[in-house]
Amino acid sequence: MKSRFLEVVCFLDAILRNGVLIDKPRNSNSSRLRKLLTVIVFCGLLYGIAMGSYAWLAGTRTFHDACLQMSYSGIKVPMLLLATFALTWPAFAVISTLFGLRDDMSLLTGLVMSSQATGAIILLSFSPIVLFTYVSVGHSQTTYSAAVLLNFVFFAVASLASHWRMRRNIKSFATGDHRHAIMLWFWVILYGFAGIQMAWIMRPFVGQPNADTTFFRAESWDNAYVKLMEIAKSLIFPDD
Amino acid sequence: MLNWFRQVDEILRGEKTRTERMDSASLDISAGGIAVVVVVLAGIYGFSMGSFALARGIESGDTTTFNAGWMQMIASTVKMPLLFMCTLGITFPSLYVFNALVGSRLRLPAVMRLLIAALAVNVTVLASLGPIVAFFSVSTPNYPFVLLLNVAVCAGAGFLGLAFLLQTLHRLSGPRELVENAEPIDAIARIEQTKKGPLHGTHEQPLGRHVKKVFFVWLFVFGVVGAQMGWVLRPFVGSPHKEFQWLRPRDSNFLEAVNNAFWSLLS
Questions:
Q1: A residues 212-231 near B, CB within 8 Å?
Q2: What is each CA distance from A82 to A106, A160, B202, in whole angstroms?
Q3: N- to C-terminal Cα separation, chain B
Q4: Handedness of CA A113, A116, A121, A127 (dihedral sign)
Q5: A99: which chain B residues are within 8 Å (Cβ-Cβ)?
C-alpha cells in the first residue's frame, strides 16, 4: 500500500518536472497518456470536491446536505478540463499538420495533456488553502463572492504555471524550431477561449448556500464574453 | 472515398506540394475526389453554424419553433458547400485567364487542382473549428456574438487557405531547372525537408513577380465574389428574430452587416 502510494507520488512529481513524455517523446506513449488522463480526472475530482464544500465548511449546511454540491463539483472539474480538450483538439491537430508538425502530433498531444495534468496537480495542491479559507471566513454574500474569486485566481495560476512549465520543457528538444512554441501558444489561446465559456456554462462550482443545488444553473446558457463586456460597459459608463 | 480523404491529408501534411513531387507543374491529386471532400467538410461546418438556430429556435409567425431551427440547420449544411463551389465555378474562368495573361506556365487542369487544394485546406480548418463554433452556438443566446465568431473563424481559415495557395503557387511557378540541376541532398537534409509543412516558404527564391500578380488578382476576385456569394446565400446562422427563409431578399451588403453586428454587440 505504502509502495503504491509512493509510486503515485513519484509519478505526479515526474509530471511536475516533466520527466513524463519528454524522455522518449517519439516512442509510443498511449499508456502514458492513459496515466495522464487518470491524473487529470483524479486531481480534478478532488479539487472539485474541495471547491464544492463551501456551504458545509462555511457552516450554512450539514455535510449530508452539502454532499450533492461536492459531488457535482467533483464531476464537473474533470469534465471541464476534458471537454475543453476534446473541443479544441481537432483544430489543434489540423493546424499543427499545416505547419508540418504531423510527425510530432503524439508528442504535442502528450505535451498538452501533460500540461493539463500539471494544472490539475497544481489545483489539487491549492485545495487545502481553499478548505482553510472556507472554514476561516464563515458565510456572507461578500465571502461567497471572495470564494468564487479565489477559485478563479487558482485556476488562472494553475493554467499559467502549467503553460510556463510546458514552454520550458519544449525548449529542451525543439532547439531552433519555433513552430512547436507557436503551436503551443495557439493551443493556449484556443483552449482558454473555449475553456472560459465552458466554465461559465458549467457553473456553479462553489455553490451558493442559499440557492437550490443544481448540476447546471437554469440561466447557465449564456455567453461569458458578452457578460464581461456588459460588466466592463457598466463600469465605464455607469449612467447608461 | 477514403482515398480522397487520404489525399487531403497528404495536402495538409505538405506531401503533395513538395517541389520534387510537382515535376509537371501540377499537383498530383484527383480534383473531382477532393471536390467531394470539400463538399463534405464544408457541410460539417455549415451544420455547426446552423446549430445556433436549432438551439435557439426561429420565429415562425407569432411563435418560436424548433422545426424552423431544423430547417435552418439543413439549409446551412447545404449552403456552405454551395458557397465554396459556386464561388469557384463563377471565378474560375477569370482566374485562369488572368493566370495565362501574366505568362504563368500553369495549365487549366493545374489551376483547377491548385484552387481545389487551397479550398480543401480552407474547409478542413473550418471543419476542425466546427466543434468550437457549435459549442458557442448552443451555449450563447447572443446572435451578434455568434455571427462575429463565425466571421472570425472563416477569416482565420481563409488566411491559412491563402497562405497555402501562395506558397504552392510559388513552388509550381518556380524554375524547374533549379530542382533538376540541384546538388543531391543528404539524408538529414531530406528528412528536414519532409518536416516542412505546406505553408513553409522556399526561402532560397523570393516570390516572383508573376506569382505576386496572379495571387493578388485571385485574392481580390475570389474574395469579392465569395463575400457577395455569402451575402446572397445568407442566412447561415439564422437570426432568432427573423422567420426562416432559404434566401433573404437582396439588400445591403456583407461589410455593412458585419459592421452592424459589431456595434450591436457593443451596444
A1: 220-223, 225-226, 229
A2: 17, 18, 39
A3: 48
A4: negative
A5: 197, 199-200
Residue A97: closest C-alpha in chain B? B13
Question: Using an 8 Å Cβ cutoff, are A117 and A29 in contact?
Answer: no
A48 touches A78 (CB < 8 A):
yes
pLDDT per residue as tens digits for the range A118-173: 899 999 999 999 998 888 877 787 888 888 888 999 999 898 888 888 877 776 66
Residue A158 near residue A123 (C-beta atoms within 8 A): yes
Q: Which amino acid is at B42?
A: A
Cα separation, A63 vs A70, in Å, equals 10
Cβ of A52: how many Cβ atoms within 10 Å?
26
C-alpha cell of B184? 543531391
Cis peptide before B249, with omega less than 30 degrees from 0?
no
For residues B75 and B78, give the distance between their C-alpha atoms in angstroms, rounded to a whole number. 5
Which cell numbers hold the place of B221? Answer: 476576385
Residue numbers in B near A91 (CB within 8 A): 125, 128-129, 132
For residues B134 and B48, is the Cβ–Cβ distance under 8 A?
Answer: yes
Q: Residue B184 — φ and ψ, nearest 5°?
A: -60, 135
pLDDT in tens, B13-42: 988 887 766 656 678 888 999 999 999 999
